[in-house]
Amino acid sequence: MDHKEGHLQIEATAASAGGGITRIERRLLQQLIEVCNHPPLTIRLWTGEEIHGRPGEPSIARVTLRDRGTFFRMLLNPELYTGDDYSSGRFEIEGDLVGFLDLVYRGLDGLPETSMKARFLRWMNRPRSNTLAGSKRNIHHHYDLGNDFYKLWLDTARMQYTCAYYARPDMTIEQAQIAKLDHVARKLQVKPGDVVYEAGCGWGGLARHFAKHHGVAKVRAFNISEEQVKFAREQAKREGLDDRVEYVLDDYRNMSGSCDVFVSVGMLEHVGVNNYPGLGDVINRVLKPHGRGLIHSIGRNKAAPMNAWIEKRIFPGAYPATLAEMMRILEGNQFSVLDVENLRLHYAKTLFAWRERYEDHIDEVRRMYDEEFVRMWRLYLAGSEAAFLSGALQLFQIVFARPTDNTVPFTREHLYRT
Amino acid sequence: MDHKEGHLQIEATAASAGGGITRIERRLLQQLIEVCNHPPLTIRLWTGEEIHGRPGEPSIARVTLRDRGTFFRMLLNPELYTGDDYSSGRFEIEGDLVGFLDLVYRGLDGLPETSMKARFLRWMNRPRSNTLAGSKRNIHHHYDLGNDFYKLWLDTARMQYTCAYYARPDMTIEQAQIAKLDHVARKLQVKPGDVVYEAGCGWGGLARHFAKHHGVAKVRAFNISEEQVKFAREQAKREGLDDRVEYVLDDYRNMSGSCDVFVSVGMLEHVGVNNYPGLGDVINRVLKPHGRGLIHSIGRNKAAPMNAWIEKRIFPGAYPATLAEMMRILEGNQFSVLDVENLRLHYAKTLFAWRERYEDHIDEVRRMYDEEFVRMWRLYLAGSEAAFLSGALQLFQIVFARPTDNTVPFTREHLYRT
């Protein structure tokens, strides 16, 4: 209800600012449509006029610009301002939201990388630094939103806020998240008695799962989000696992001691490429001679900054790296890459499941936050799904070991044994 | 017989050059032993004196320096000259040859990368250029040695001169080479009717196997080695496959038309990092929208030049790249990496099988070439096995597809279905 009223208010403002569209505005709009390869969209202007991006073909969505400011902000920095204007309701998308965003991602990928505009955008959108203090601030922004919020739409099994693994296409999100943890455990050859170090543990689901189902002696799981660690500790106590699972409210850079297994699922996005060799040094310091390591992270086919709006509003300091960039973690210490798997389509499926559940609980979200937040989060979930569907983002699982370790498995057949 | 006589001649030369060992020579030898971490070796000097690298422990091999020139050449450039001196018989290794070379590789890896010496060696040992003419010259050096020679010790099934895949540890080299071709075919989802382009086809075994057992419509296999192409064409005719297999005596850079599958097994080592973006452009030019690609190549954990002796005497122009370097092939055209597998230990096992067969046919090799060649090839096979065992070399299989192709398989389970 608030939502509708909000829109009406904006329309009134737009009308009072003078409704017409000038000749220069019309020319700019035509140029935008051309640059975007005539998208199959209906564009509704603040004047009420509707323009078809690809005349004669059906539209997949209707896009409404509620005032001329929205239009100019879109020209200035489409990535950043269109996200904000969608959140505030100045920019509306009716119809296939993911399909629309998929078009946007494919369009952005088509821009020449070396253009001055692309370079300037890269500079503008450089991620924030991940110093020890910077990381804490950045992580707090996202992960300390409140456990109750994430509980509404993440899986109920292990509250995993990372890509699931759909071993079979008909799995539920709960089954796929458990399958992910087991897939990771098999890749790491986790066995009874192992000591596991985890860098960035979310709500601690992996640690508890490894302790309960893979018989590890100890998991030391690091995280700098207070809310998450509090939840994880309580949950471990409830499950009677607190003798084997230790949640450490500290930065991964402060890891000490030694482990059989190093695992990091969905933390690398927040590390920053400059800190990759340092992460490698940490792993080199703690991993035993026959230890196994796995890094699971969002990535890219080609180096590019994080989507500006996501970096600003959702994930400050985040950056999805290319495989070549990720190698900076391992090359300095000569770790040997054993296996890389790309789970891009699994993340699209995971995000679809999250968004479906998010919309099912939309009234509860509205009670927690304002309409702007509701719309922002919807755009973030839909946009991320579109990014994985369009190939703008990838999901890499990298398995590695010491270079001289000849006890590594000969084949990967053990991963698929039933 | 010639072999023994050759040694006697050298010993006589050494004796006539004066037999004693000076104080400075002894000090240099002690320093060398220290730098090499006191290897468990017995070192026999041209004077007849024996020195133990690690006193009190059993030696894994006895190393003989037949004259002082061998000793000084070893100090000057151990990688290059020790190989040559082993070939000529001036440097002898009795005992565990692979074990000795494994020690050498682990020792070399320990040298600091940034030392002036390392930098100078890198410059000295830079690989030769792979221009169109350069490639032809380099490839001729190795692959046109004569098909009869390679037939003596490669597998009799498909004459594969690349890493086999031991799906089960008890496989013969014949079974493992067929298993490799089937593993590659499954990774590429090769299906009846497909058009396959192969860059660097050796004696054409993959092309004939794909045509015979995977029902492809056409394989166009490129190779610039005349001897190999001649053999491949004759063999295809004998097997009645010449309607579906076309061997093209040309550089991969001249590929045109379009294909469903791009495959390259064991060619990248000869491409040169500077030419990687160009290789990516070739693939981008020929691969259909739903096409699949696979590159199989020797690699490294960390960038380093090819072993100087191997580059000079065995494989001119060769270079084993890191995964990050290999990404230069794919990133420019935004190909999406789906899967990377490291088959390092499979190559050690392959090389063991080749060397065993080589030694079984040593009398036939002696009839074809001189003793220097016999020893050179033994050192090359043993040294390569040691390099894979010690982790100095890796073997990567990289599967990739177009970034927007959402028809790629969800999991890799199909690779391991029986």
Architecture overview:
Chain A is of the alpha/beta class. Chain A folds into two domains: 2-124, Nonspecific Lipid-transfer Protein, Chain A (2-Layer Sandwich), CATH 3.30.1050; 132-415, Rossmann fold, CATH 3.40.50. Helices cover 47% and strands 17% of the residues of chain A. Chain A has helices spanning 2-16, 23-35, 68-76, 78-88, 97-109, 116-124, 132-143, 147-153, 173-187, 205-213, 226-238, 276-286, 308-314, 323-331, 344-360, 362-368, 371-390; strands spanning 41-44, 50-52, 61-65, 91-95, 195-199, 218-223, 245-249, 259-265, 287-300, 321-322, 336-342, 394-401. In chain A, the strands form two sheets. In chain A, strands 5, 6, 7, 8, 9, 10, 11 and 12 form an eight-stranded mixed β-sheet that branches. In chain A, helix 3 (68-76) runs antiparallel to helix 4 and helix 15 runs antiparallel to helix 17. Mean pLDDT of chain A is 87; it is low at 1-17 and 115-126. At the A-B interface, helix 14, strand 11 and helix 15 of A face helix 14, strand 11 and helix 15 of B. Strand 11 (336-342) of chain A pairs antiparallel with strand 11 (336-342) of chain B, so a sheet runs across the interface.
Oligomeric status = homodimer
As a percent range, the share of helical residues of chain A equals 40-55%
The Rg value of chain A, from CA coordinates, equals 23 Å
Q: Give the CA-based shape of chain A.
A: elongated
Q: Largest interface here, residues on each chain?
A: A-B, 47 and 47 residues
Question: Which percent range describes the beta-strand content of chain A?
Answer: 15-25%
CATH superfamily of the largest domain in chain A: Vaccinia Virus protein VP39
* CATH structural architecture of the largest domain in chain A: 3-Layer(aba) Sandwich
**In this structure, how is the largest beta sheet of chain A organized?**
8 strands, mixed
Write down how many β-strands of chain A occur, each being a DSSP E stretch of 2 or more residues.
12
